[in-house]
User: Which sequence fits this backbone?
């Protein structure tokens, strides 16, 4: 293992506070670990705003550039991850405004003021070598992503932070500058809308699940006939 690789392994066991201190001195191992630690969260939250994988990836990169070149602005009033996420949210919202050429998403209309600004992926397990299973997982992932993309902006962002990324209610409330009750309300509404969307898309397919026709039906029939009629 190279010297850098060894230092990265060591840095993975260090908390954010110490890593930030090292990152201020441009310690490469610290920067690598912090980046890997928050890549998924930043991507998912940016993706929830922009609904574009490529744009979300751009936002993540820009977020790290801004954060690490301006790391002296981090005062520790909130966690480093929250600070990073707010930078990503501001960047994503700015891109959304530029793309749509209209005011930024009206978070106020969702019931709470929004003053600061953070997949979305449902990765298919690489360990599963069954092509049919992998294809099914991929189709389910795409259905889920489409349904989440269709959620109202504020509901979608809260849902991704709380459910997809697994942040706590407290963390989500702090991130979006919301009351915890508002987070719970938006999450409930997002779940209702998501369930309705999934039922609408998948409902007609439920009657065709667990098929028992064709060769399997014929095989079972023949087996029963052999045991009952020809024994």
Assistant:
């Amino acid at each position: 293992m190279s010297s850098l690789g060894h230092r990265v392994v060591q840095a993975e066991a260090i908390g954010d506070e110490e890593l930030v201190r090292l990152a201020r001195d441009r310690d490469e191992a610290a920067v690598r670990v912090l980046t890997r630690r928050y890549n998924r969260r930043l991507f998912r939250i940016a993706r929830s705003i922009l609904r574009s994988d490529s744009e979300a990836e751009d936002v993540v990169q820009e977020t790290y550039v801004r954060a690490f070149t301006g790391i002296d602005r981090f005062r520790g009033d909130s966690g480093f991850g929250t600070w990073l996420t707010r930078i990503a949210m501001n960047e994503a919202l700015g891109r959304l405004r530029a793309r749509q050429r209209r005011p930024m998403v009206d978070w106020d209309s969702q019931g709470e003021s929004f003053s600061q600004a953070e997949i979305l992926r449902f990765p298919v397990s690489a360990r599963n070598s069954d092509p049919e299973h992998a294809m099914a997982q991929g189709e389910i992932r795409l259905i889920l992503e489409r349904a989440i993309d269709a959620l109202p902006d504020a509901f979608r962002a809260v849902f991704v932070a709380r459910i997809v990324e697994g942040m706590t209610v407290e963390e989500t409330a702090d991130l979006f500058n919301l009351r915890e009750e508002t987070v719970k309300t938006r999450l409930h509404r997002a779940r209702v809308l998501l369930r309705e969307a999934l039922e609408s898309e998948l409902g007609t397919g439920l009657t065709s699940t667990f098929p028992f026709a064709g060769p399997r039906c014929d095989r079972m029939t023949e087996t029963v006939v052999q045991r009952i009629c020809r024994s």
Observations:
- The first helix runs from residue 3 to 11.
